[in-house]
Every structure is written in structure tokens, then in C-alpha cells.
Amino acid sequence: MAPSVETKLTRLRTGEPPRLLDLFSGCGGLTLGFVSAGCRSVGGVELDAHAAASHATNFHPLIGGEPDTRHALARDILQHKAGDLINLLQEGSPEKGVDLIVGGPPCPAFTRVGRAKLREVAKNPEAFKQDPRATLYVQYLQYVRALKPIALVMENVPDILNWGGQNLGDDICKSLTEMGYRCAYTLLNASSYDVPQMRERFFLVAVHKETGSDPCFPVPSRNVELPRGYSSSRMVALKNVLSRSSRKASWYVPAPATDSGAQSAVTTYEALGDLPALTAHLRGQDRRGTRRLDGRIPHEKPPHSEYSRLMREWPGFKSDGFLRDHVTRCLTQRDYRLFKEMEPGEDYPKVHARAVQFFLKELEKRQRAGRAIPEGSDDYEDLKASYVPPYDPGKFPNKWRKLAKDEPARTLMAHLGKDTYSHIHYDSEQQRVISVREAARLQSFPDGFRFAGTMNPAFRQIGNSVPPLLAWHIADSLLRALGISSKAPPRLSEEPPKIQQTRNKVA
Fold first, then answer.
1. Beta-bridge mates of residue 206
2. pTM for this structure?
3. How deeply is 416 buried, as exposed, middle or buried, from its count of CB atoms within 10 A (0-12, 13-18, 19+)?
4. Long-range contacts: 360-368, Cβ < 8 Å, 24+?
5. Where are the alpha helices (DSSP H) in 189-299?
6. Which residues form the catalytic set?
7. Per-residue pLDDT reduced to its tens digit, 364-423
């Protein structure tokens, strides 16, 4: 039987760190933010074997650095009851229970891309509603009911608020309210919280009524002007929330406003500019095969920004002066040619048009040299393929994009595990997509954080994660609202962070 909320509060008042359980933990973005704020990880629940191993490596290592096998084991939350899991993970002190639960139930069924793929597979417009991943939040709630945390945080994609016309955010809050929690949810953009990435996500915070506190969200530390597409996507996600019929019954609160004196967003250059350049030789341009993460590339430059200093000096995850996962993909000469000529911020339709021009010039060159190729011939198609990418620019407008040095990156997605054309390095001389370490930097993972597996699994883990710096801001505001002292990693600014408190139900 889980300890009561009152028992947990009494223990926490003695100064003991809050005990944290991360459900659907991935490699540990949320865990890192909360641990850095002063919590103690009791473990995570994660189905992906590589992500589970990463979580254990970073938060539950044995002497010598190897991960504790109890924590490194991949687990299906559907197969583990909460009490049994806690007894397993907390050998020696299961009676203390769990104080905080965080996590993000898998989101593919909630995203517009995920829904379209499911419909295509099933030939059924409503197929996404039958995806078992869409109901895993129920298991999250079952863990809350069984373990009685004093507070919790849930993360997901914004489309969870408009899932087949249903607002799951309100449904979840209704269930939590019946369990005795005060709830609120909003949409936060990571670039507003020191992360060099414009990543928009749903966050729900709930605190037990016995704490006497209200749910809260951190005031942004950065002043960010988001592209138009982010605003329109936000309005689509909030369509049901902001409708006249549901407004009075919703637990939604607008994201906290940014202070007028807030700094501008952390840029891609501030995040990546100190990392070693990957020349054709270092990136293995002409060598295909497995990309492992244990190579040692020394830092050639000192930290060039407050952000890069934080990434190197994050307490508990400091760099030892070498990068072990600064690896990227081996692509084609067609790609390298286009990467070099792309402009910052340029996307796939423009790249495709540029590639067609390159191809036509080569055809003209061969014709002048007396080596004309008949249109429609095999040689013609082979030459075209060596210049023009095969993707329809009308269907894949975001397939390729070159990073802009002076702004945050666009959202890192889970499909980084399959390709990284969406994040092409801004340095045209390097002619490449980002490396694993650069993706980690853009997601705010410190350089000392280790990823299990090889390149593709590492990319996937990073793309699936909550940015640790955003997680720290959320943890810091929550802990302080609960009257618990919060620790901070090296600050990017001297101004103390602020929080916005909200009542449990908002008219």
C-alpha cells in the first residue's frame, strides 16, 4: 500500500529529495530536468530497449559506470502493476513510495502525421482511434491512483487536445480531479525556456489538494517570435479548447507571458558553434555502415556562448573534453552538392527546384559536348536521380531544411532515427546533416549524457525526448510552489526564474 500524501509531505519537510518515477521515460529528458532540480530518480518505465539502457546508464549506474540491470531492462507498462514495479526498483526502501510522477505517453496516434499513416494502413478514417498507443494515458492514471504522488507532470503533442474531435486534456484532468488533484494544462514552446529549438508541446501539471498548492507553469526566460506555422498549428490544436461551449469547463490556461526584459532565444549557432567541424574524412562520407557512438573527438575550441558552457559543465554530466557521439550519416554526392548551395532556412521545394536546375545544366553541358541523352532513356533517368531527390515537393515540403545560424532550430522529430534532412547543418563547407551530439545539443542534453546503441537509435531517443532544460524550468516552478527547495544547473541568465500559479479549474 502506497504511503499517504500526508506521510510524504512530512518526510519531504525534513529536506529529503523528492522521489521521482518517470513513466514512458525514453532516455530521460524529463528525469534529467527534475533530477537537476533536486529530485531523486527511483526509476523509469520504458518499452524501447535502447532508451531504457540510456536511462539506466545516466541515472542508475553501478560502480564502474555500467547500468544497473534492474533499471536497464525494457518494460511494457501494460505488464507491470505499479506496486510490484516500485518494490522491484526500490530494493531496501519501497515503503517510501513515489512523490512525483512524470511522463509522456507515446504520441503517434495523437499527431496528424500519425493519424494519416494509420488511416492509410487500415483504410479507415477513424483507425487512429483504435491504436492501442492512444489509450496508454489510462495506465499513467492507474499508476497515479496506485502510488498517490503529491504532484505529477504529463507531456504530449498539442494534438492530444483535438483527438478525433475529443479533448483528452480535459478528460485526463477530470479523472485526476476525482482522485483529489488540482489540475491545469497549457502549451509551452521549448525555445521560450533556453532551448535552441522551437518545440511546442502540451504539458499538464497536477498537485494533490492536501499540499495546499496550485498547479503552476514557469514564466518564459526567453522572448521568442515564432514562425507563422507554429501559431496556426497551435490554433488547430486549441480549436476545441477555445470553443464557446467548452471554454467554461476546461482546465486549460494560456501559456505564461514573457517578461518585457527577457533575452532573445538561444540560437543554433550558440548551441553548436564550438563543436568540431566534421570534414568529409571525419564524417565518413565515403564509408557506409554502422555508426557507433564511442569515438573520441577532442574539443578544438573553448565554449563560445553561455549555452555551450552549460552543455559542457552541467553538474553530474560534465564533458571530459571529448565527444563520443559526434557522428552523422553517409549520404550521396547529390545531397552534398545541394547542401553546399542551400541558403539558411531553405526548405525542400526550393531545394528541389535548385536540383532540377543543376540537372538541366548538366544535360545542356553534355549536349554541347556531343553526348546528348534521350529523354526517358535509362541513362536519362539515372542522371536525373543523381541530381534530383525523388520526393514530391508538394507532398514533402518539410522533408529538407537547412538550419539558420541566428535562430532556434525547428522541432526535432522521432523520425530523426530514419533521416535527418530536416536539420541540415548551417555551415555550407561541411555539407552535411547534423550529428547525434548536435541533435542532443539542440534538445539541451549536456555533453556528458550518454546514449545507448548506435546512431539511428540515438537519434530516435533524442527526437522522442522532452528537452531537459525545459523540464528543469517545469520542475523548478513546481517544487517551489510545493515549498520544496530547488537546485539549478549553471544559469544562462542571472535573473531568478518566475512561476505562474493557477487555480485548479479555469473559467
1. 152, 183
2. 0.90
3. buried
4. 362/387
5. 228-237, 268-272
6. 107
7. 999 999 999 999 999 999 999 999 999 999 988 888 999 999 999 999 998 888 889 999
